[in-house]
Design a protein that fits this description.
4-stranded antiparallel beta sheet; 86 residues; alpha+beta; 3 helices; globular
Length: 86
């Protein structure tokens, strides 16, 4: 499956496609926004990731399938950068 996003063709394949299809697909995650690429995440590790309209998929080779694909924790990121109001 591929989608044109910002003039780029973003495709979904391999383990990320298998996870996407098994866990709600388009309705749950939306279309892919990027190709798969490597990114340094919050824990300092470098992982293969792919961004979707409503999720970031992360490939964690230290886990066995089907637990090798995890979703990014955007809530933690947003909360950590939000100003504290009380």
């Amino acid at each position: 499956m591929c989608k044109v996003s910002r003039g780029e063709v973003c495709c979904l394949g391999g383990a990320f496609r298998t996870y996407w299809e098994a866990n709600g697909g388009l309705a749950q995650f939306g279309y892919p926004l990027t190709e798969v690429f490597e990114e340094r995440l919050e824990d300092g590790g470098i992982y293969r990731v792919q961004y979707f309209e409503r999720a970031r998929f992360e490939y964690h080779p230290e886990h066995v399938a089907p637990y090798d694909i995890l979703l990014g924790q955007f809530g933690r990121q947003i909360l950590a950068s939000a100003p504290t109001t009380r």
